[in-house]
C-alpha cells in the first residue's frame, strides 16, 4: 500500500492554486477539466517531496463557491525548516499565522497554524 493524495474541495481553483504555489511553495503537477462531470482537478506537490510522492488534490466543482467544512475535518500538516523564516515568507504574501507559533503538546516541537483561502487549517511543524 502507498499513500497517494488527499483531496479537498475548493471554491475558487485559481485562488487556491496561487495560495499553495505562491505562499507555500507547492508545485502544480497537473490541472484537468472534466466537462462531463462539471469539475476540475488540480494536483500539487509540496516542496521537498519527491516525484511519485503524495500530492494534494484540489477539486473545483463548477459553480460551487464555498463548502461547509463541518466538524470532522482536522488539518493538513507540513514540516518547515524554520518557523521564523516561514513567518517572513507568509508576511511577504500578506499572510499571517492563525495560531502560534508555540509549543506542541509534547512541549518540544514548535508548531503554528495558518488557514487557506477556503478555511482549511494547515499545521506547520518546525523541523528539529
From TrEMBL:
**GO biological process assignments:** methylglyoxal catabolic process to D-lactate via S-lactoyl-glutathione
Q: What is its EC number?
A: 4.4.1.5
Recorded GO cellular component terms are: cytoplasm
* InterPro entries assigned: Glyas_Bleomycin-R_OHBP_Dase, Glyas_Fos-R_dOase_dom, Glyoxalase_1, Glyoxalase_1_CS, VOC_core
Q: Where is the active site?
A: 123 (proton donor/acceptor)
Catalytic activities: (R)-S-lactoylglutathione = methylglyoxal + glutathione
Q: In which pathway does it act?
A: Secondary metabolite metabolism; methylglyoxal degradation; (R)-lactate from methylglyoxal: step 1/2
Residue positions annotated to bind Zn(2+) are 57, 75, 123
The cofactor(s) it depends on are:
Zn(2+); Ni(2+)
**Cofactor note text:** Binds 1 zinc ion per subunit. In the homodimer, two zinc ions are bound between subunits.
Q: Which UniProt keywords apply?
A: Lyase, Metal-binding, Nickel, Zinc
Domain VOC: start-end pairs? 2-127
A Pfam family cross-referenced in the UniProt record is Glyoxalase
What the entry lists under SUPFAM superfamilies is as follows: Glyoxalase/Bleomycin resistance protein/Dihydroxybiphenyl dioxygenase
Q: Which GO terms describe its molecular function?
A: lactoylglutathione lyase activity; metal ion binding
Record's family?
A: Belongs to the glyoxalase I family.
Against PANTHER family, the record matches this protein to: LACTOYLGLUTATHIONE LYASE (PTHR46036)
Question: What name has this protein been given in UniProt?
Answer: lactoylglutathione lyase
